[in-house]
Design brief:
Length: about 240
Amino acid sequence: MYIDRRLIFLIIALMLFSSVMSLMSSEGRLLSLFLSIPGLLIAITFHEFAHAFAADRLGDDTPRRQGRLNLNPFKHLDVFGTIMLIFAGFGWGKPVEINPRNFNRNISLAKAEAIVAAAGPLTNIVLAFVFEIITCAIIRFAPEFYVSQAGYITNIILQSIVSINIGLGIFNLIPLPPLDGSKILGGFLPYNAKNWLDSHGQIFEIVFVALWIVGILSLIISPLINLVYSGIAHLCAAMFGLTVI
């Protein structure tokens, strides 16, 4: 996905200032930030790789030619998006460029774009599920390790991976340009409606930023993130006969 950096530069600066002030006054917050690095790398890398992989499977070799069909984090990290994910809880990776004209014609171009767009967020949700299973497996089969100091740190890292993947996945499902959700929505819209959405993309990007600034987006997606997190936690716990407190 593409985000006009000029529109969000002020937001980044304000959030950075606020977060840095918070970090300077909280050693615990600084430690949590450090332990969240694996989650950030995993979430962004797999999200963008999934876009590239889906496009490649549908016949577009653009991501392959640009070196995006791999799990090297440095190929997928976007400086601004990573900063936002660290300090705001929502962010993005370096956009995977695609050329819809290269897609095979087994399905419509709109649906192919929707599949490519959906691949990223869905991969994040699957990853969250996988790492929650790992957490529950440790609790079930290695309780001594889980209550140890190393287990405590491991649990923080695992839960950070789960929460960051859920946050990145749900955030990108918002059906507003420039997020993946708008491309997914476009795959189900009539031709004229999709063209109208595409032609007004810049306006919707401004709406998106405005909603972000005033906090409406956070009010909408935070409950969704909590709901998905709770659902995954309860499902995985039930699989291992555990009780979520």
